[in-house]
Amino acid sequence: MHTTSDGAMTERVLWPRGRKTTQARPLAKRLDTLAGKTVAHLWDHLFRGDEIFPILEEELARRYPGVRFVDYRVFGSTHGGEEHRVIAELPARLREHRVDAVISGMAC
Fold it and tell me: What global pTM score does this model have?
């Protein structure tokens, strides 16, 4: 709070949303199918990804012939002490493994 020269009380307030620092970009085109595609798993190591990803793989493989998976351990955790490095390296790692789609999870 601040008192003005005429004795009125004023407060400074900030808008909680802040300024925009990036521009929205169009979303990538969705794949027509996962058949024959490579899908990467990304995990933050916070909630049961080690249990859920194998179930997803089994079901997706049953539905989409030839789908291939790149395990989350290949990329590292997307949360924690190494997350900045993992995210910075992600585009190159996805290209290296010829990834067509990503499943990223699992926060509780």
Answer: 0.72
